[in-house]
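Slide 14.
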Amino acid sequence: MKFHDKYPILKQKEFLAQMLTNSVFTTMSLENQQVELSKVNEIVQGLLKEKESKGNQFFSNQIS
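Slide 15: predicted structure.
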């Protein structure tokens, strides 16, 4: 069983983006690197859009 089959919620873009944003923000805070949550979210969204624009299908075409 593949990881995405076991946890289908990870195929949902909004859930994954929120999880990545929170993870990066928390890690940076623990290392005393104060960055606004909105800035981290902006970077994560930009990276996900870049990945999609290059033609890599990262997310399934599911409707929540």
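Speaker note: The chain has three helices and no strands.
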